[in-house]
Amino acid sequence: MNKLWKYTQYGYIVVAIVLLIDAITRWSTDRNQAYFSIVFAVFITAIFFFKRWFRRKIEKKNNERK
After folding, report:
1. Ranges in the chain, pLDDT < 70
2. Which of 6, 11, 13, 17 is the residue whose CA sits 20 to 30 A from 37?
3. Which pTM value belongs to this model?
């Protein structure tokens, strides 16, 4: 299960990239929607880094127990 979470966390980065591409394509037509996509991409990226940090913390704790 731990290996599954290790790889699925990169889905957050994929979603952030898609949102940034969406923001770039909407920039000239709908700036409000582009800003929303950018803010959401930043939020998703923060979630990625938090989950990665938390997973490493748990792995370190589990390795110390062994």
Report:
1. 1-2, 66
2. 6
3. 0.81
| CA–CA separation, 36 and 40 (whole Å) | 6
Give the pLDDT score at 40: 97
CA–CA distance, 9 with 3 (Å, rounded to integer): 10
Distance, CA of 2 to CA of 15 (rounded, Å): 21
End-to-end Cα, the chain, rounded Å: 18
pLDDT of 7: 82
